[in-house]
Structures are given as structure tokens and as C-alpha cells.
């Protein structure tokens, strides 16, 4: 499976009151992976929203990924993204099966990415590349890391953290396959602008 393009990630605060219309607007513009990221403990709302996203993603033929929660991913038959403290990859792979998309946060550390590859990750995520209003204070990654990762890893490489339409192109030029974006996509004033941004991110890949 070819994983390349825009990786849209939801944010429950940013999308409050406009969750599904904004997500659908992004899907309309073209999304390779959609991650449901909700850091609350509201299990009922998480299930309801994840189910709604699963339906929407099926309609748009987009892959849904659940952040942090392999059990919820298994319940819906979709993928999962796991950070370094979200539980090990190997049991998640066993739970979700060979075909499932499983992503791993590797910060700015190649050794973590190589370990994730050995443990069955489908892609590795490095970040943050720019200052992030969504998640401030995480350690920085740079383009030299991407160059090294490209030569040492066969897996798709995802970049995250403060990515927007003005700073994304050099990441693609340095070998990034997936641009993971929250604010640079969903911090828009209208659904039309979300769709325009999604299309513009895809155009960056098309012209690379
Ligand atoms: C694509 C992608 N990359 C990195 C992360 C961050 O995961 P994590 O470090 O577990 O932090 P939280 O997102 O859970 O706060 C991600 N979610 N997606
Ligand atoms: C969830 C997350 N993880 C990061 C990491 O570096 O691991 S940065 C980040 C936030 C991404 O949101 P935005 O596109 O708004 O900066
Ligand atoms: Mg996490």
C-alpha cells in the first residue's frame, strides 16, 4: 500500500462545533490518512466520533487511524498511531492484523524508527519540524534527520509539527511521504478554506 500525501489529524478543541463538516471538507480536498486524535477520557464520545469518521472515511476511500487506542482501532477495524508511551507495537500488530496501518512516533531519533520498523510499523513519524501551537514544547527534528532516515529506512516517513502550506515543500524535497497536519489544515475560517488547503497540500506532492 502506497502511503504518500496529506495526513490530516483532528483536534477536539480546534474542531469543537464543526467537527464533521471540517473533516468532510478536508476529505473533499484529498486526504491519504485521517487520524482521530482526542485526548479526553470521554469513552462514549470517542466511540461515537470515531464511528462517524469511519463511515465518512469509507465514503471517501480514506484510511482512518485512531490515536493512542489500539482497542478502539480493533473495534472499528482501522489503523492506530502509537507514541512511545502508548503501548508496544508488536501486540498492536497481533491485535489489528497484518494489513492494518500502524504508525509510530519516533521524535527525532533514528534508533526509535529502526526499532519501530523491526516491530512491524507501517510508517514512522518524526517531529516536530516547526513550532506547534497544538503541541508546544516537544523536541525539534530537522532536515538532516530526514536525509539519514531516507537512506536507512524503507518505510514511509511522516513529518509532523507546525506544518503549513508555506513551510511544507522542503520536507517533501527531503524525502517525506506523509505530511501530518492539524492547525495548518483545520485552523481555517471556513470549510471551503479547509478544502482549498487540502488540495494545495496535495499539489505540493504532485509537483515534487
Ligand atoms: C502522525 C503522528 N505523529 C506523531 C504523533 C504524536 O504521537 P504521541 O507522541 O503519542 O503524542 P499524542 O499525539 O498522543 O499527544 C501523532 N499523534 N501522529
Ligand atoms: C500531535 C503532535 N505530535 C507532535 C510531535 O512532534 O510528535 S507535534 C504534534 C502537533 C501537530 O499539530 P500541528 O500541525 O497543529 O502543529
Ligand atoms: Mg500518543
From TrEMBL:
2-[(2R,5Z)-2-carboxy-4-methylthiazol-5(2H)-ylidene]ethyl phosphate binds at residues 132-134, 162. GO terms for molecular function: magnesium ion binding; thiamine-phosphate diphosphorylase activity. Residues 6-184 form the Thiamine phosphate synthase/TenI domain. Binds 1 Mg(2+) ion per subunit. Pathway: Cofactor biosynthesis; thiamine diphosphate biosynthesis; thiamine phosphate from 4-amino-2-methyl-5-diphosphomethylpyrimidine and 4-methyl-5-(2-phosphoethyl)-thiazole: step 1/1. It is an enzyme of class 2 (transferase). It comes from the Bacteria. It catalyses: 2-[(2R,5Z)-2-carboxy-4-methylthiazol-5(2H)-ylidene]ethyl phosphate + 4-amino-2-methyl-5-(diphosphooxymethyl)pyrimidine + 2 H(+) = thiamine phosphate + CO2 + diphosphate; 4-methyl-5-(2-phosphooxyethyl)-thiazole + 4-amino-2-methyl-5-(diphosphooxymethyl)pyrimidine + H(+) = thiamine phosphate + diphosphate; 2-(2-carboxy-4-methylthiazol-5-yl)ethyl phosphate + 4-amino-2-methyl-5-(diphosphooxymethyl)pyrimidine + 2 H(+) = thiamine phosphate + CO2 + diphosphate. Its EC number is 2.5.1.3. 4-amino-2-methyl-5-(diphosphooxymethyl)pyrimidine binds at residues 35-39, 67, 105, 135. CDD domains: TMP_TenI (cd00564). One of its GO terms (cellular component) is cytoplasm. Keywords: Magnesium, Metal-binding, Thiamine biosynthesis, Transferase. One of its GO terms (biological process) is thiamine diphosphate biosynthetic process. The keyword Transferase applies. Belongs to the thiamine-phosphate synthase family. This is Thiamine-phosphate synthase. It comes from Pseudomonas auratipiscis. The lineage of its organism: Bacteria, Pseudomonadati, Pseudomonadota, Gammaproteobacteria, Pseudomonadales. The gene is thiE.
Amino acid at each position: 500500500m502506497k502511503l504518500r500525501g496529506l495526513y490530516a489529524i483532528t483536534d477536539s478543541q480546534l474542531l469543537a462545533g464543526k467537527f464533521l463538516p471540517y473533516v468532510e471538507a478536508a476529505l473533499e480536498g484529498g486526504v491519504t490518512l485521517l487520524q482521530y486524535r482526542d485526548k479526553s477520557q470521554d469513552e462514549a464520545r470517542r466511540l461515537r466520533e470515531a464511528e462517524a469518521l469511519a463511515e465518512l472515511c469509507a465514503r471517501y476511500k480514506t484510511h482512518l487511524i485512531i490515536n493512542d487506542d489500539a482497542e478502539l482501532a480493533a473495534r472499528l477495524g482501522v489503523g492506530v498511531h502509537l507514541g512511545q508511551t502508548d503501548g508496544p507495537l508488536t501486540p498492536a500488530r497481533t491485535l489489528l492484523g497484518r494489513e492494518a496501518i500502524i504508525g509510530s512516533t519516533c521524535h527525532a531519533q533514528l534508533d526509535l524508527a529502526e526499532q519501530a520498523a523491526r516491530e512491524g510499523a507501517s510508517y514512522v513519524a518524526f517531529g516536530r519540524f516547526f513550532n506547534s501551537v497544538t503541541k508546544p514544547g516537544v523536541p525539534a527534528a530537522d532536515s538532516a534527520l530526514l536525509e539519514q532516515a531516507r537512506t536507512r529506512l524503507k518505510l514511509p516517513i511522516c513529518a509532523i509539527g507546525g506544518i503549513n502550506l508555506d513551510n511544507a515543500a522542503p520536507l517533501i524535497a527531503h524525502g517525506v511521504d506523509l505530511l501530518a497536519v492539524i492547525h495548518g489544515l483545520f485552523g481555517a475560517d471556513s470549510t471551503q478554506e479547509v478544502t482549498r488547503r487540502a488540495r494545495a497540500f496535495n499539489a505540493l506532492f504532485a509537483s515534487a
